[in-house]
Write a structure and sequence with these properties.
32% of the residues lie in helices and 32% in strands. The chain has 272 residues and is of the alpha+beta class. The chain has 3 domains: 43 residues; 142 residues, no CATH class; 61 residues, no CATH class. The strands form 7 sheets. Strands 1-2-3-7 form a 4-stranded antiparallel sheet, with no helix packed on it. It has a 3-stranded antiparallel sheet with strand order 8-16-17. Strands 11-10-14 form a 3-stranded antiparallel sheet. The radius of gyration is 30 Å and the shape is flat. The model has no long low-confidence stretch (mean pLDDT 87).
Length: 272
């Protein structure tokens, strides 16, 4: 059995004939040397670690002008990577002497390791109905998660609320967010609060459980349940841009609108 050199040194040190004072002094020195060595190691690995360098090797705009993209190659300590990002091209603001370019809306649509030798980007304009048929041909079990506003547009209930001892109630988003819960003295004690009235949508999952209330989110729906007329209501144009990367579709305007990729209310925006 091999014993590490450090363990041997510690055993010799503690079982040597040195007095307690000497052991304390030398022990303190050993600990300080250990800490100093750790600090030096940390600084060396931090200062001399290989840097990561990213470079935009291609950029452009979709045929409709609605989107722009960048192909970014990254060199790092591994084999690097290649990614493609897409962002809206219609949100910049040109105010005569000032031009504001929106940032923080990028969506990565392609990411590959190691770095790709060839990244071929191709844009096509495709019809909404054709994209629907392609998605349905891939799988009939594809699901999409809609927002409250989208559920309102389609006239579909977004939540199902069940109170203990009552039947489930399906609610439209506006109705659900308007529900007030008035707590009894016993319920206030359970929640350890002095507040008597709460909005239902403000209660945590744990609080709902203590109150015997179940809320089910109904906003995830089967893609096949959405008819073309529904897609029109959701604002999906008849045709739009589809990006292919090395022959494979990686971005469809259709899905970007449906899942609100670039909804400004869901983003952290930086105007520079």
């Amino acid at each position: 059995m091999l014993i590490p050199l450090l363990v041997v040194a510690l055993v010799i040190f503690f079982f040597s004939g040195l007095g307690e004072t000497a052991k304390t002094v030398y022990g303190t020195i050993f600990v300080l040397l250990y800490l100093l060595g750790s600090l030096v190691y940390f600084l060396m690995t931090t200062l001399f670690a290989p840097s990561t360098v990213s470079k935009v090797i291609e950029e452009g705009v979709s045929p409709s002008g609605d989107y722009r993209y960048e192909v970014i190659n990254t060199v790092d300590s591994s084999d690097g990577s290649t990614k493609v990002v897409v962002e809206p091209n219609t949100m910049d603001k040109d105010m005569d002497m000032l031009y504001f370019s929106i940032r923080g809306m990028e969506r990565t649509v392609f990411l590959a390791r190691p770095q790709q030798q060839v990244t071929k980007i191709e844009w096509k304009s495709e019809k909404r109905t054709d994209i629907t048929n392609k998605i349905n041909s891939i799988s009939r079990d594809v699901e999409v998660t809609l927002s409250d506003a989208q559920m309102e547009l389609l006239g579909l209930p977004a939540y199902e609320v069940t109170y203990t001892g009552s039947s489930p109630m399906k609610m439209m988003p506006a109705d659900y967010h308007a529900v007030e819960i008035t707590l009894t003295a016993e319920q206030m004690k359970k929640l350890e609060t002095d507040k008597e009235v709460y909005m239902l949508d403000s209660l945590s999952e744990n609080a709902l459980k203590k109150l015997g209330i179940t809320v089910e989110n109904l906003k995830t729906v089967k893609f096949t349940s959405l008819k073309d007329a529904d897609l029109v209501k959701l604002g999906i144009p008849d045709h739009g841009d589809v990006m292919y990367c090395n022959g494979k579709p990686v971005f469809r305007y259709y899905i970007a609108v449906l899942e609100e990729y670039f909804d400004i209310s869901k983003q952290e925006i930086d105007l520079t």
